[in-house]
Amino acid sequence: MNALTAIIEPPPSPLPDSAPLLAVRGLSIFFGGRIVPTVQDVSFDIARGETLALVGESGSGKSIIAHTIAGILASAATVSATTISFNGIELAGKPAAVEALRGRRIGMVFQNARAALSPTLSVGAQIGDVIARHRRLRRTALRAAIVQALASVKIPDPERRAKAYPHELSGGMCQRVMLALAMAGEPDLLIADEPTTGLDNTTQAAILDLLAAEAGRRRMATLFITHDLGLARDYADRVAVLHAGQLVEEGRAATVFDAPRHPYSAKLVRAVPAKAATVADLGGIPGKFPDLSGPVPACRFADRCDRAVDRCRVEVPRLEPVPPDGMAACWRPLG
Amino acid sequence: MTRVIGFRLLAAIPNLVGIIVIAFIVTRILPGDAAAYYAGPTATAATIEETRQRLGLDGTVVEQFLAYVGQLVRGDLGDSLSSGQPVIEDFARRLPASLELTLYALIIAIAGGILLGVGAALRPRGVVDRIASVVSAVGQAVPTFFLGLILIFVFYYILNWAPEPLGRLSFMYRPPQPISGFWTIDALLQGRFDLFGELVRQLALPVITLAWFGIGPIARVTRSAMLDALSSDFVRTARAAGLRRRTILWRYGFRNAVIPVLHTTGMVFSFMLGANVLVEDVFGWPGIGAYTVDAVLVADYAPVQAYILVMAALYIVVNLAIDVVTALVDPRVRYDS
Amino acid sequence: MGAPARRRWPRLRIRGGAWSVWLVGLFVFLAVFGPTIVPYDPVATNTRVRLEAPSWAHLFGTDDVGRDVFSRVIAATRLDLMIALGAVLLSLGIGTALGAAAGWAGGWTDRIVSRTIDTIMGFPLFVLAVGIAAGMGNSVWSVVIATSVVNLPLYARTTRSEVNRRRTSGYVQAARLSGIGSFTIVARHILPNVTPILAVQASLNIGWAILNAAGLSFLGLGIRPPTPEWGILVSDGAEFLFSGEWWMFVFPGAMLVLAVLAFGGFGDWLRDRLDPKRA
Fold first, then answer.
1. In total, how many domains does chain B have?
2. Which chains touch A (3 or more CB pairs under 8 A)?
3. In terms of pTM, does the model score above 0.90?
């Protein structure tokens, strides 16, 4: 993470400061020498035991934010942030600090678990590598720990499955393996990057229930990245809505869904007809995603917004508290 | 695993048959009367006829082929006219010299190619990448024998670092007692370390010449396979899990890049078996390649026939070994057969 | 072990530029006019100028019997290029025919051709070339044929798979239904699609053929001295390396390198022009 000193003025700390586990302030990410940041001035908190869903269309920058926090972003990117503070430790511009936390205090699971596991090692060996990295164990103890880890994610017959290779397991099983792998370091924060994309609905629910149970049991914070609004509503405590690299609304999941304040969130919510709809098949939002290789309006939603005024195109709206208990970045919020 | 080996051995049988057929055909395209030729220059009409019957040359082509196969089954590769010995004995004596040269070259090509390739993948367009492309470009444009001669000229004639390029060991030294036939290993086994050093000095230039041509392709394939592996989802997972850099690079990156590298190694080995003849010729190396070339030049054909058979058989063995290692590394391959 | 798809050398990375076209032009010029423009008779001996180092009179020096090395190296261009070109054209012609027959007819024809090709590839190629050249005795033809046989698989395989792929395509079916003969369909309607790929393969192959032929004659197979040929010249010159007369082996060797680079670059240049989906 190649952090520069923040060039964007920090917002006047409107977020509740009950010593969150993770606090991100003024995070901007630039790609390949572009002038327009791909992620612009994003701030959010996650408390212990809390699940925050970061919701947005593909290309909105949600995965990039996750990778930045974990310090595994491609080197072509330039990151600037006022603060990325984890449990009081400053991570912005300190690759070594992130390195020390990654895999231990911060765990991560990805989508498409089968491709995210090495095809030439048994799943037990891969979990063993992670356990051995964090704990000094003898052979037999390590084997027991591997079986234990697989059992903890409800994999049936864990002793036999430990010897299996990813191609021998179903997608859901691979996702459980990856969850076990992320949990091996007993993290305080789990970053789940679209963990159930590509799985069928039953498996999806099983995995997320498991994840929620583990998080609840261990008071683990979860940053849940998804484009699936239904899942965000069902599994997250709070929701942050991202549009084209800008955080437009943030608040309790129920509030955001029942009474969205930002026009974009409102359109998202309205576009969800049934429980399982996803942003991917939204038909209802006019206009297209702004092209970040050229100049964009200050509020990047302005060109798609029917409430936009001149000010929206020249002055970036800040996240401000909106009643009852959320925040929105909009000059003309709803309600 | 035994199943894999069994399958591959079965699959190698048609290849072996084809190879024997071609070796047979190569001798049949000899101009003139083969019987007169095999009977030797002092033959009379009677001895020619006797030879014809002895070699089964009076039968049909099919009978002749079966006779030839029968010979092979008995381990008879014919007699060399020039040495007067059974070819199989001459080969047995000289094969270790060829193998020692070729296997050391292969090891160096693999090690050098992999290190250069991994280094190049870690920093594309970096110094290692540049070195790898120069080595590779030279390997593609410079003939084997010419590179050998240049190395001799520079390191023996001008700098005088290398010993005289005439065989495995200068006549001033007594060779080790043959145990494995690999003199370097035999010298170590007998505790003759000064001799070992001398053998290594003698091996250096021919091994480098032969290895050079393998380093380029192996480095290139390693580089691209490593670039693919390092940008894969599973390496991202390994990084996110906080594994050590070394573990990520080799256990997660290289392990998944190794299969194309292995296949290139098979190709490189094939090339080395061919180039071996040239290198032995240039360095006066007493292996089967130089022996065969000497035989050809005096129109002694039994060694040639034996030579292409032995080389093709070696190639089959190495490919088999590569297939087995592939199956060991990649569990998915095990189910393909 | 089937037939692992190793073998072809990954090709020269030096981008094929105009330089290679000029260089190939120069080699062709030397092949045509070389023997008539060289300053000395390439085979005439002159014992008064034995083993002279390079000078203005003898740019590349003289050999042990006083022949001018420059004249011999230039005069050898024709033979080396003709061998390489002959071998490539031969394997191109026969390989394409075999591949087309196998790909079109399928069945036993295909099985026999494919088996033969696999068997050829079961040998280390240079070893097979040595065997063939040895079996055929001392003539230029034995080098040409040895070089072309080991290259057959390259052309046969490409043609076979392309013909096979297009055999069932709509336009071929249409041609068949309108009563056009098999030979005409293959020759007129299928092979032209393969031509660019084959042309690029053939031009990249020439450099390899030069190396192969030079290697054989370096060993003393096929062509005999005093015929000027690069491999033989290097081999002859190598005997004088130990007494320091380097020019006898360095110049013909350098000429070989230059020729291989030129044709390799030319092949790349051609591929960039024709761009047959990176054959």
1. 1
2. B
3. no
Task: Tell me the chain B residues in contact with residue A122 when contact means C-beta distances shorter than 8 Å.
Answer: 331
pLDDT, tens digit (0-9, with 9 covering 90-100), for A153-197: 999 999 999 999 999 999 999 999 999 999 988 899 999 999 888
A34-43, A57-66, B234-243, C240-249: least confident range: C240-249
In a domain, B303, yes or no: yes
Distance from C-alpha of A216 to C-alpha of A222, rounded to nearest angstrom: 10
Domain co-membership, A218 together with A264: no
Residues B298, B82: contact at Cβ < 8 Å?
Answer: yes
> Does A108 reach chain B within 8 Å, measured CB to CB?
yes
CATH number where B255 lies: 1.10.3720.10
Cα nearest neighbour of B322 on chain C: C1
Contacts of A86 in chain B (CB under 8 A): none
ipTM: 0.86
- Using alpha carbons, list the distances in angstroms from residue A264 to A219, A302, A320, B149: 32, 10, 16, 75
Structural domain boundaries in chain C: 17-34+61-278
Number of Cβ within 10 Å of residue A310's Cβ equals: 9
Between β-strands A326-328 and A246-252, what pairing exists: parallel, antiparallel or unpaired? antiparallel
Query: Does residue B161 form part of some domain?
Result: yes
Listed by number, the residues of chain C in 180-199 with a beta carbon closer than 8 Å to a beta carbon of chain B are: none
Q: Are B136 and C13 in contact (CB under 8 A)?
A: yes
Cis peptide leading into A324, omega within 30 of 0? Answer: yes
Nearest residue on chain A to B329, judged by CA atoms? Answer: A120
In the DSSP assignment, the letter for residue C47 is: G
Query: Taking a C-beta distance cutoff of 8 angstroms, is the pair C216, B143 a contact?
Result: no
Residue A194 with chain B: CB contacts under 8 Å: none
Residue B51 in domain: no
Domain that holds residue A322: 248-328
Closest C-alpha among B262, B337, B331 to residue A126: B331
B29 contacts in chain C (CB < 8 Å)? 132, 135-136
C119-177: per-residue pLDDT in tens?
A: 888 888 888 888 888 888 778 888 999 999 988 998 998 888 888 888 877 787 888 78
Q: DSSP secondary structure string, A179-215?
A: HHHHHTT--SEEEEESTTTTS-HHHHHHHHHHHHHHH
% of chain B exceeding 90 in pLDDT? 29
Query: How far, in Å, CA of C207 to CA of C209, rounded?
Result: 5
**Is residue A1 a contact partner of residue A75, using CB atoms and an 8 Å limit?**
no
A164 and A44 within one domain: yes
| Confidence band, pLDDT 50/70/90 cuts, at residue A269 | confident
Domain span at residue B137 reads 96-315
Q: Which fold has domain C17-34+61-278?
A: MetI-like fold (1.10.3720)
